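hey team, just a heads up i'm posting the complex here instead of the shared drive bc the drive is being weird again. everything in one block, sequence lines first with there labels, then the predicted structure for the whole assembly after. its two chains so it's a bit long, scroll down
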Amino acid sequence: MDFMVFQYPMISVQACLDGILLGILFALIAYGMALQWGVMNIINIAQGDLVILGGYIAYFMYLYGIHPAWGVIVAPVIMYFVGIAIYKLVINKVVDRDLFISILATFGISILFMQLMNFAFGADVVLANSDYGTTMLFNNNVVLPNSKIFSAFISILFAICLVIYMKKSKLGRAIRATAQNARAAKILGVDTEKVYAATFGINAALCGVAGALISITFTIHPYMGLPYTIRSFMIVIVAGLGNLPGVAMSGMGLGVFEEFADYILGTEFRIGSVFLLLVLILIYRRFKLSRKREYLK
Amino acid sequence: MRLNKIILSFVSALVILFSTSVASFAKVVGDKIILGAAISLTGKYSSNGVHTQNGYNMAVDRINSMGGVKVGGKTYKFDIIYYDDESNPKRAAQLAERLISQDGVEFMLGPYSSGLTKAIAPVTEKYGVPMVEANGASRSLFTKGYKYLFAVLAPANLYLDVAIDLAVEKNNGKGVTVAMAFEQDAFSQDVRLGVLDAIKRTGSKKVIDDKLPKELNDMAATLVKVKQMKPDVLVVSGHTKGALTAIRQIAEMKVDVPMLAMTHCDAAKLSKQHGKNSQYALCASQWHKTLTYKDDFFKDGMTYDADFTKEFGYAPPYQAAESSAALLVFKDAFERANSFDQKKVRDALAATNMQTFYGNIKFAEGGQNVDKPMVLFQVMCDDGGKCENKVVAPTKWASAKLIHPIPSWSKR
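-- predicted structure starts here --
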């Protein structure tokens, strides 16, 4: 264990800011997961793989001389249609089935995507350079890459647009109605089939944005999707479904937790600490639920 | 009953026919020496798996076109049976079994990576099949007492200790402070052990010792500590992910460190992916085209580089060069053994003492090559932003002078 993070206050500030910026990006991915989980009752194990695919779209734009930041516009458009295609081919056959079936189906999609990306793009680790420079704070003691700030800003922008869209648009209202009660919505004339397809498409589009941002900020690789799925799952579990402020707070909290775990326990325990936290939260929730049940009795 | 007997005899006849055909397929068919290899053509190692296969194929074509292998007064040609191990150690071990017990292969070439070589080595050892491998550098491969395993490359613990020696030399022989970040895998941990030995030997001090996860894509925490501790050397080994992440974040976070040494720069195409940001990074390499080793088949490094580029459309990374060298070693051993007897070939391999375009090859008892030092190259860029890797150590092979200390980011 290394407590350097507490010995030097500036390192704590650095860890907090890094964690918050990172957490906002995680929250965007998690929001997509929460949306389709709430509407369709599907836990999408392929969430991280959709993110990586979005990253490859930005990377290929970069390879062809287009600035990768444009990926945040192109990737969601392409990924929306990828999402619709996945829905039509697989998800619509499992949408009303047991949760376990949908987990198996999306797990299969995840493996398929990993192998297809490996086959199409190769196994090399790649990245897209944005050349955005660096912001120095507190007398150069805290360093924030502008690419991370850009990622957080774009994530917030997309989240706000989505909230407005869900509140104001017809489709948004239909999605919310379906999430509340699919049967009632159907009776009242909502085409739930269309709503499901659009929801899965929107989720994939959000993954596309996040992927483009990750290729600018970090690195991408066909087999790097799972940690993003786990993080979004964790954030949604903490925040609950359909709770955007909760998802944002939980995302930032997870980002800061990861950064501190990295400093204190070491980078090797970074992802492990997320798993540990997930287990602890699940145990806590079970404990809380059992107390509630006793009270109800 | 009679029908059953007929079926039984028919099946038995087929089995006998099949087993004899397998036996005749073993090791030599007509004028061909059949070697077996499980290679990662898909999965996470597929890029380097393909480099390995291209290296093998290039050497097979070259040796065959230049007269082949002469054994017992007869000329033979090399041929290789490949299987895709999917970058999976279990699959690699199964395929090694299949190559040996079903396909009848009696001589093997190694897979890509230390992990997969570790999975295959017990199988080849069990059957007494000599294996020359070119891509498994982990020290643990050479301490298990394997008798049939020979590696043409220098072991992993020698990758970056040269960098510590170099830093000490630049510090007028006094010890230096070292920050280390190594991935949690067999190879990188062996590199770490080598660096720790060098730290002890030179009276240096380790100030950071971070372990990186397999799914690494953010090492900001390590770099913040580096900024705080200001070590003389930062050593990073985390395959291509580690090299790319380190360079990206060092540049973004403006981390100033007098010496930065890493592995896998070649495979990460560091100078291509990061351009000027990768400037001054020191990279450990098994081979570099400017080294002046020579042989009769590929002449020298520069010729190999040109020929390989012409054939495959990209410059050969060291993974390809060492794979080609493995075939040269096999050819030499077959000719000296003058036999296809596995024991005799194994003994001939153990007595190898030769020079190839890739370097000198002489095996120690454990099977590792002890006659080829690692080289360190430094990424150097011109004003136009074009970057090149230039050998700076050991001095004997240096084609450029080491730039030390690395200029600070504010002056770049």
